[in-house]
Amino acid sequence: MLRKIIHVDMDAFFASVEQRDNPDLRGKPVAVGGSAARGVVAAASYEARKFGVRSAMPSITAKRKCPELIFVPPRFEAYRAVSQQIHAIFAEHTPLIEPLSLDEAYLDVTDNLQGIPVATAIAEMIRAKIKAETGLTASAGVSYNKFLAKLASGQNKPDGLFVITPKLGPAFVEGLPVRKFHGVGPATADKMARLGIETGADLREQSLAFLEEKFGKAGPYYYWIARGIDERPVRANRERKSVGAEDTFASDLFNLESALKELAPLVGKVWSYCEERSIQCRTVTLKVKFADFQQITRSRTIGGVIEAQTDLATLAGTLLEQVFPVSKGIRLLGVTLSNLSGRAAEADRQMSLTI
């Protein structure tokens, strides 16, 4: 039996919440994030996107593209509150909800709680109720698997709905650039291009053996999605993989003492998050990004769980010491905890905290 999958994706979520809560921002180009020279755009309104402003773009670049851009600091508590409203609406229809982030999720409505036979009707009901209860718009994709539902949700953004039927699925995939495929990142897309794979049709021409040789464990996934086939189930209460925090600094760091000082609040943030939720970990990873944007990571795994914040600080500090002396300044530090246990199994997504 074919599944009925809906992918719901809020439209410019962080920026839309800010425009909803502050009428002076409506209709104007808005970026959520730091406005300083070293800041980064966390989210951009559709008015800002018309100028080429995108998330993860350096703030200075965004301001150059859109001189009228308005920066607002992020309010994650507000975004989480709205996210809870949205997920409560999802839960009225199905317990099979797989959140990907605060603003998007997969829903399996094959056997839904209200007995509605048409998934498109459910998607319309969800979108309408989100608009009524939050004042925000959501786009949705409906299809018979997760891969196609994700593709569909991006077709008519913002405030749109798109359906890919089993009959249309394979042909729809054939005509799309592989760069638009969920699960094909920029580096993989570049590699595919070097191999002459530009579209879904090009990907479909490749044998399973060839894709396994070139892309390893991901090869079978690419082979089947090129045919519109994705057997992955919607996984409710998906296990959390990691908890992390990072910060970009106003000035580059050149000595160990100042770097350790900036590392301390990151350690405190991830430890507090895990302690509040009874999450334990065994692995700490340090992320270092230099002034020229070169990035390195250093990890350490211990035999048992990390017992105290002081232990975590020592482990992270030791990893940082291994980086010094540095020949170029450090613009960003990050700390990530993995090999999680305890209530981590109840979490729904990989968590990233930004200071």
UniProtKB/TrEMBL annotation:
InterPro entries: DNA/RNA_pol_sf (IPR043502), DNA_pol_Y-fam_lit_finger_sf (IPR036775), DNA_pol_Y-fam_little_finger (IPR017961), DNA_polymerase-Y (IPR050116), DNApol_IV (IPR022880), IMS_HHH_1 (IPR053848), Rev_trsase/Diguanyl_cyclase (IPR043128), UmuC (IPR001126)
Primary site of residence: cytoplasm
Cellular component GO terms, alphabetical: cytosol
Superkingdom in the source lineage: Bacteria
Known EC number: 2.7.7.7
GO terms (BP aspect): DNA repair; DNA-templated DNA replication; error-prone translesion synthesis; SOS response
Residue intervals of the UmuC domain: 5-185
Any GO molecular function: DNA-directed DNA polymerase activity
Active site per the UniProt annotation: 104
Subcellular location: Cytoplasm
Listed SUPFAM superfamilies: DNA/RNA polymerases (SSF56672), Lesion bypass DNA polymerase (Y-family), little finger domain (SSF100879)
Catalytic activity, as annotated: DNA(n) + a 2'-deoxyribonucleoside 5'-triphosphate = DNA(n+1) + diphosphate
Cofactor (UniProt): Mg(2+)
Pfam families: IMS, IMS_C, IMS_HHH_1
Annotated keywords: Cytoplasm, DNA damage, DNA repair, DNA replication, DNA-binding, DNA-directed DNA polymerase, Magnesium, Metal-binding, Mutator protein, Nucleotidyltransferase, Transferase
PANTHER family according to UniProt: DNA POLYMERASE KAPPA (PTHR11076:SF33), DNA REPAIR POLYMERASE UMUC / TRANSFERASE FAMILY MEMBER (PTHR11076)
Protein name: DNA polymerase IV
Natural source organism: Mesorhizobium australicum
